Structures are given as structure tokens and as C-alpha cells.
Recover the amino acids of this structure.
């Protein structure tokens, strides 16, 4: 309990909570911004290649959902760039010159992404199929590069590099070293994989629910299979990546690693704790695997693992129990998703068809929520684990926080607003999907989403109807 | 100590980006304002529909200008950014509030079907369009009057509540309404809504007169609150101010004569706004905060500045073609032979899962051309496609 009181006593807590909640919200939308286009393009590719109308319809509907999510993500992303200054003027005043470059790059990639989301949505009606498919490719590329840029900025806070400081002022900056600091490759790879897994499992989860409710047509099977396959192929990679990153952190930020694994004292034969609550130097309710932590870090039980006793108490992260349990949750879910993917893969390998039993679909339906939880837990580990530093071993959070006293108010407002935004970003796709099931095709045609063309431009009332196309049944009534 | 050429270049880019945001973002906010003023549910739908149609497509791209302003400022001028963010915490937070409300209202209003829900989200969207430019105006007013301390110890209420700052806030709102109304005149004309052309032409004239009056008021206030800026505005920046006034009057004249030339009207209104922003930038030179924080001491090391210049170059190189493509698609309302949702629905539901039967899917238009320059390819195909269709007609 001592640690909790300590944290609440620090005046950076409201600012930190506000940053944490805005980031925690935005990152989910960011995942869709990074990966949804790839999932959609896969469906469209299948649709064009095999002449599969169900796949094309899925792609078209997903692109509408993507537009809504990118629109909300743009808002929460703008809020974050404001908050960098509003909450952490100390950080930006001193290190803005360094950390600014990756953010500027992100600005470009986001710009590209927003534009091509617009092109892609317009293009459904205005471009030939393959040209339209290609118009979606920049979204995928910009998504990954944008993730690289923003995560590079966060990595820089973990492994500051590329600047010289004299008398508390930055005198020179090497943007390249800032961007490609020691943590960048690890964090970026982990986050991009996480984004694809979150998107894949969330979308697959939605169609798993549909399948469980008895909608077993090709549309729903494809809607499940496409995102699940993408996420499932990446799940084992992510587990491997996580293992590599843990070793990097043990080396690069040993105190963070100590908090993740409950290493109070530097020791050999360090045990691996699974679960457990850390109170006054003891771990309760946890299972210890003897020497396994040492083995994981250095492939030998005699590996020395650095404990948090290596730094004075005021430089240790608070809330070690939160950090450790978040880490365990992330790892546990990672293995759960890996197992789920392996199960489906096994079945596919031997039977060449989708496994769609309730025993498989029920855990698949929750896989999306689980993936989101794992990603959030991972961010808790890296952010809380870096405390009390905002720039690791260079600047304390307390030195960076704003002296303005309005933060508790803005925190309350942000919490309310983000609750609304959450409702919007979940509610809009839900409302849309209900409408797709109930309404007529004409009404779906008239549907409007952010970025998309307005129906007035495409409606037959103001313009001549589209010419009849070979292979396409134009117009509803006369079709069988 | 005079500022380095890199610092001047980045400052100039920052001013250009601000001008772009004032124009495009301003038109966007102005749309929200006219939406708010469009009246009851019986009277309002026609103008609201036009606003909605012309704002929707480019809305997000406008948003990114703001992100660029923030990022450019903090990278190139970190001390100024930190001071502004600390001292002007309140108006900046309020402007963010507006942005979030706008975004939420905007994302949801298209999906809201019931009228009440539509009205609520619409009102949210419109009210936010008023809040954001107003408080951004007070921020600019506070900076221009040199009221932002270089090392603030907390919020500085006096900085953004001075008469100049408040006037600037109102000026921003009026300018947004003005730019937007001028653009909407042309949008209405393009769509052939003669009544709406009259409607927005009247409003553009009114907003133009109000904007001019507020600009005059702010200018007069500056003489007392910021002598340095006032002196430069009446000195070296005077030509820009004069161009702005002339352009403003020219727009009013064109509206009066009903000479709705798409390029000239739009361009002249844009010049009126952009020259004011540039004039303000020139009037502040060489200070970030007039007379307390010079550009030279407030700018980042050369490495960061050069990086920002490279980013700006990249932005032009990468974003411009994309933007052009989007704009091109938006302006050319051509329907291609692609299937409608209805076709796909029928095909997917009535003829499901028969392998090898190309139901409604379009025949692949030749093999995908393997080229690294995806962007160029899309553009080429698009242009080719567009021209071939024109010929057929």
C-alpha cells in the first residue's frame, strides 16, 4: 500500500492518468489504422481474383468501418499531440527538438493515410478493380511507417540518443540517431505485430459471434477466416518477438525488467514468478519456477539477473504488482492466441476446411477483446515500468509535468469525452451492421461515412444510372 | 544575434502551414458555423446538406494541418511551444474540447437516423465549430501581444483575456464564416442550386463586412497592446495588409456583381486570408514572442531544423500527389462500371459459394502492373480511365 500512497502523493498523477487514458484509448484505434487496410485489401484481393462477391462485399463494408475508426482516431491523435505540450511542457521545452522529428514523420504518414482512405472510399465507384486495390496499398504502407515513427518517439524515451546537452539545453541533434535508437526495432516490430493481431482477432471475433448465432453462409465464414488467418500467422511470431524483447529489456532497462519479473535483489538462479502480489518484500499467491528467469535471460540458471535494489528507492518504478501482473497477462494472452491459431491451423492442415465448432468459436469470439487487453497490458508494462523517468535516466516525470493547475479538470472532461468516443466507435459499426442485415440494398447504397463520397453524387436521381456491365446483375428487382 | 537561415526557413514554413490551416480548416469550421445558423429543421436542410456534402470529403486532411502546426512548433521552437502550452493551458484545452466534440458529432451524425439524434450530433458539431476557432484566436492574440511569459509558472489568464486577444478570437470566428461562405457559394453554383448561391452570397458579404470591421478593431487595439507588431504592420508588412484589404474588397465586389468565377473568387478570398497570416508573421519577425523571445534564442539546434525542412520537402513530394488525386476524384463525378453494393449483395446472398462462378465480381482489368511506384500507377490508370470515358461520351 505504501507504493500506492507514494504515487498519489506525486503531483504528476492527474497528468499521467490523463496521458495514460488518452493513449490507451487512441492505441486501439491506431491498431485499426495500421492494420485494417491490410485485412480489407486481402478480402478485396480474394474478391477480385476469384470473382467472389461475398469477399468484395466484406471489403466494401470493412472500408466503411475503417473510415469511421480512422476519423475517430484522427481526433484522439490530435488530442494526444496537444497533450504532449499541455501536460509535459518540461519535456517538450527541453527535448522537443529531438523528439519532434519522429512525430513530424508520423504527421506525413498520417496525412497520406487520411488522403488514401478518402481515395479508396471514393474509388469503389470510380476506379477499375485493380486500380482500386492499389489505391489501398498506400494506406497499408503509411500505416506501418506511421507506427514506426510514433513508436520511435516512444522508444527514444526508453533509449534516449542522438543529442548533446549542455547546461540543460540541447545544443545539437542527430535526427537519424533519434529515430533509430536502440529500442526502435524491438518496440516497432512488437507494436506492428500487435496492431495486426488486435485488428485480426477483433474482426474475426465479430464474425465468430455471427457464426455462433447460426449465420454460416460464405459471407460470415470469409469474414471470420480472412482476419483470423492474418492474425493467426502472426501470433507465433509475436510470441518469439516478445521473448527477444524481454531479453533486450533485461539488458537495456534492467530495473524495468526487475519490476516485470519481481527481481528484488540482484541474483543468480532467479525464479520466474507466475502471478502473485508483491507486498513488503514478499510475493503472495504466486507460483515460482526455480531459476527459470535466469534461464530465460541468459539460457543458463547461473545468469545474473539485476534486481531493483541496484538503484536507490526513488528511482524504482512504483506499483510493481501492476507491472508484473500486466506482463503476465500479456504473455498469457499471447500464448492463448497462439494456441487458438495453432488449433485452427492443425485442423486446416489435416481437413482442408474451417474448424467451426462452438468449442473453437467461443474462445475465438473473445480473442479480439483478449488481444486488446494484452496490448494495453503491454503498454502499462513499458510506460509504468519506465517510471519515475519520462526520458530514461535523463529526465524525471516530475520535471516534465505542467505547472498549470487545470489538469484534474481536463482529466475529468477527457474521461467523459472518451467514454462518448468509445460509444461512437463501437456504436457506429454496430448500428451499421444491424442496418446491413435489415435494410434494403438501396439504403446501404445511400449510406454515408466520413471521407466517403456523399450519396447525392452517386444517386441515380441526379445522375444517369451506371451502364449495364457484363457479369453484373445491375438493379435489384429483376434479379432472381 | 540574428536568427539562422534554417530557423527563418522553418518559421516561414510554419506561417505557410498556419495560413493553410486558416484557409482549409477555417472553411471547415465556418461550415459548422453556417450549419448552426441555418435555422430550424424545416428551413435548414438545404444549406445543411450542401455544407455536409462539401465538407465531408476533405475534413480529415484539414485536421492534419493542425497536427503539423503543433509538431513544427515543438520541434523547431521548443521553448516557445512549452511556454505557450503552459501559459495558455485554458484556451488551448477548450479548443481541443471543440475538436473532440466536432469529431464525435461528425463521425456519428451520418449514422444517426432519428431526427432528434441527428439534431443533437449536428448541434454538437456546430457548437464545437464556434468554440475551436474562437479560442485559437485568443491564443494567437496572446502571442502577438507578447503577453506569453517566456518561463511561465502556470496558467496566465491575463494573456488571453486582453481586449486584443478576445477581439482576435471573434476575428477568427468571423473569418472562418467568411471563407466558408465564399467557398459554399461556389459549391452551390457547381451543383446548380441557384437559391443557395444567393443564400451564401448574402452571408459571405455580411461575414466579409464583419470580418473587415473586426480586423480594423484588432488592428487599432494592437497600437496600444503591441506597439512593436503595430509598427511593423504599418511599416514593412504594410503591403501585405494592403493586399489583404484589397482582396477582401474585391471579393465583396465580385459577389455584388454576381461574377462567380470559381478560380478568381476562391483565389481572391484565399489571398485575403493568407496575406493577413503572412503579415502577422512578418510583423513579429524576428521575435517568437514580440520583444521577449527572439527567434534566434528560441529555435532548436540546426540538426532539428534541417530535419524539419526535409520533412516539409517530403510532405510536398508525397502528400501533394495524393491530395491531387483525391481532389481529382472529388471534382470528377464519374461513375465507373464497378458494381454497386446492391449488386454485390444480391450476388453474395442469392448465389452463394458456387466456386468458379464469377457472380457479380468485375472481370479483372488486366494483370496488375508490377511497379514500385504505386502512386504513379494509380494516377496513370485513373487519368487514362477518365479520358477514355470522356471520348466515349
Amino acid at each position: 500500500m505504501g507504493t500506492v500512497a507514494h504515487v498519489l502523493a506525486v503531483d504528476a498523477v492527474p497528468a499521467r492518468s490523463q496521458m495514460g487514458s488518452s493513449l490507451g484509448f487512441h492505441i486501439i484505434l491506431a491498431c485499426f489504422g495500421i492494420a485494417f487496410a491490410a485485412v480489407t485489401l486481402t478480402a478485396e484481393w480474394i474478391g477480385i481474383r476469384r470473382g467472389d462477391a461475398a469477399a468484395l462485399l466484406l471489403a466494401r463494408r470493412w472500408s466503411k468501418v475503417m473510415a469511421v475508426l480512422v476519423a475517430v482516431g484522427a481526433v484522439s491523435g490530435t488530442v494526444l499531440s496537444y497533450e504532449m505540450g499541455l501536460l509535459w511542457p518540461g519535456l517538450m521545452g527541453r527535448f522537443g527538438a529531438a523528439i519532434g522529428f519522429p512525430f513530424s514523420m508520423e504527421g506525413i504518414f498520417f496525412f497520406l493515410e487520411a488522403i488514401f482512405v478518402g481515395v479508396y472510399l471514393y474509388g469503389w465507384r470510380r476506379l477499375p478493380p485493380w486500380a482500386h486495390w492499389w489505391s489501398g496499398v498506400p494506406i497499408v504502407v503509411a500505416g506501418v511507417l506511421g507506427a514506426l515513427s510514433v513508436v520511435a518517439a516512444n522508444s527514444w524515451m526508453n533509449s534516449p540518443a542522438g543529442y548533446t546537452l549542455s547546461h540543460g539545453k540541447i545544443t545539437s541533434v542527430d535526427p537519424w540517431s533519434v529515430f533509430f535508437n536502440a529500442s526502435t526495432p524491438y518496440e516497432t516490430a512488437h507494436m506492428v505485430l500487435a496492431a495486426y493481431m488486435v485488428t485480426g482477432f477483433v474482426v474475426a471475433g465479430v464474425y465468430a459471434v455471427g457464426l455462433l448465432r447460426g449465420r454460416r453462409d460464405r459471407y460470415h465464414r470469409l469474414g471470420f477466416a480472412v482476419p483470423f488467418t492474418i492474425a493467426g500467422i502472426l501470433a507465433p511470431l509475436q510470441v518469439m518477438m516478445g521473448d527477444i524483447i524481454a531479453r533486450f529489456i533485461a539488458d537495456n532497462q534492467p530495473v524495468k525488467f526487475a519490476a516485470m519479473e519481481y527481481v528484488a535483489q540482484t541474483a543468480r538462479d532467479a525464479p520466474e514468478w507466475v502471478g502473485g502480489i508483491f507486498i513488503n518484500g514478499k510475493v503472495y499467491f504466486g507460483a515460482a519456477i526455480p531459476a527459470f528467469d535466469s534461464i530465460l535471460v541468459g539460457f543458463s540458471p547461473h545468469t545474473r539477473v539485476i534486481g531493483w535494489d541496484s538503484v536507490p528507492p526513488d528511482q524504482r518504478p512504483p506499483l510493481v504488482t501492476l507491472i508484473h501482473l500486466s506482463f503476465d497477462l500479456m504473455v498469457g494472452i499471447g500464448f492463448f492466441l497462439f494456441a487458438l491459431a495453432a488449433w485452427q491451423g492443425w485442423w486446416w492442415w489435416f481437413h482442408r476446411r474451417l474448424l467451426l465448432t462452438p468449442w473453437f468459436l467461443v474462445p475465438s469470439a473473445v480473442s479480439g477483446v483478449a488481444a486488446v487487453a494484452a496490448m494495453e497490458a503491454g503498454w502499462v508494462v513499458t510506460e509504468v515500468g519506465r517510471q519515475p523517468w519520462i526520458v530514461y535516466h535523463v529526465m524525471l516525470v516530475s520535471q516534465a509535468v505542467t505547472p498549470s493547475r487545470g489538469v484534474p479538470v481536463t482529466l475529468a472532461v477527457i474521461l467523459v469525452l472518451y467514454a462518448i468516443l468509445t460509444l461512437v466507435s463501437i456504436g457506429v459499426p454496430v448500428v451499421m451492421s444491424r442496418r446491413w442485415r435489415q435494410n434494403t440494398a438501396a439504403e446501404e447504397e445511400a449510406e454515408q461515412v466520413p471521407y466517403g463520397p456523399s450519396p447525392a453524387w452517386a444517386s441515380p436521381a441526379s445522375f444517369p444510372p451506371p451502364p449495364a456491365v457484363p457479369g453484373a446483375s445491375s438493379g435489384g428487382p429483376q434479379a432472381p | 544575434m540574428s536568427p539562422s537561415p534554417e530557423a527563418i526557413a522553418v518559421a516561414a514554413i510554419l506561417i505557410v502551414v498556419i495560413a493553410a490551416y486558416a484557409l482549409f480548416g477555417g472553411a471547415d469550421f465556418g461550415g459548422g458555423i453556417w450549419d448552426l445558423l441555418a435555422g430550424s429543421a424545416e428551413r435548414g436542410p438545404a444549406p445543411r446538406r450542401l455544407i455536409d456534402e462539401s465538407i465531408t470529403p476533405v475534413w480529415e486532411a484539414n485536421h492534419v494541418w493542425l497536427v503539423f502546426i503543433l509538431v513544427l512548433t515543438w520541434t523547431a521552437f521548443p521553448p516557445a511551444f512549452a511556454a505557450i502550452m503552459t501559459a495558455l493551458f485554458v484556451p488551448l484545452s477548450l479548443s481541443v474540447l471543440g475538436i473532440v466534440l466536432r469529431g464525435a458529432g461528425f463521425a456519428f451524425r451520418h449514422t444517426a437516423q432519428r431526427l432528434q439524434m441527428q439534431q443533437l450530433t449536428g448541434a454538437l458539431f456546430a457548437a464545437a465549430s464556434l468554440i475551436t476557432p474562437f479560442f485559437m484566436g485568443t491564443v494567437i492574440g496572446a502571442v502577438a501581444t507578447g503577453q506569453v511569459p517566456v518561463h511561465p509558472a502556470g496558467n496566465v489568464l491575463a494573456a488571453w483575456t486582453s481586449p486584443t486577444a478576445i477581439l482576435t478570437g471573434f476575428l477568427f470566428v468571423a473569418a472562418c464564416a467568411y471563407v466558408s461562405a465564399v467557398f459554399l457559394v461556389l459549391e452551390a453554383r457547381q451543383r446548380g442550386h441557384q437559391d443557395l448561391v444567393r443564400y451564401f452570397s448574402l452571408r459571405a458579404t455580411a461575414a466579409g463586412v464583419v470580418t473587415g470591421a473586426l480586423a480594423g478593431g484588432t488592428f487599432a487595439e494592437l497600437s496600444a497592446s503591441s506597439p512593436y507588431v503595430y509598427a511593423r504592420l504599418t511599416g514593412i508588412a504594410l503591403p501585405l495588409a494592403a493586399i489583404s484589404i484589397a482582396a477582401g474588397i474585391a471579393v465583396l465586389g465580385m459577389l455584388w456583381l454576381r461574377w462567380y468565377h470559381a478560380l478568381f473568387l476562391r483565389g481572391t478570398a484565399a489571398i485575403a486570408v493568407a496575406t493577413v497570416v503572412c503579415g502577422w508573421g512578418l510583423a513579429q519577425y524576428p521575435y517568437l514572442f514580440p520583444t521577449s523571445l527572439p527567434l534566434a534564442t528560441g529555435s532548436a539546434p540546426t540538426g532539428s531544423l534541417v530535419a524539419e525542412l526535409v520533412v516539409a520537402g517530403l510532405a510536398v513530394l508525397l502528400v501533394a500527389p495524393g491530395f491531387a488525386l483525391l481532389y481529382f476524384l472529388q471534382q470528377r463525378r464519374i461513375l465507373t462500371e464497378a458494381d454497386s453494393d446492391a449488386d454485390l449483395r444480391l450476388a453474395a446472398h442469392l448465389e452463394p459459394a458456387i466456386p468458379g462462378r464469377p457472380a457479380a465480381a468485375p472481370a479483372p482489368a488486366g494483370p496488375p502492373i508490377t511497379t514500385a511506384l504505386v502512386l504513379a500507377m494509380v494516377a496513370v490508370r485513373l487519368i487514362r480511365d477518365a479520358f477514355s470515358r470522356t471520348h466515349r461520351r
Notes: Chain A touches chain B through 123 residues (CB under 8 Å). Chain A has a mean pLDDT of 84.
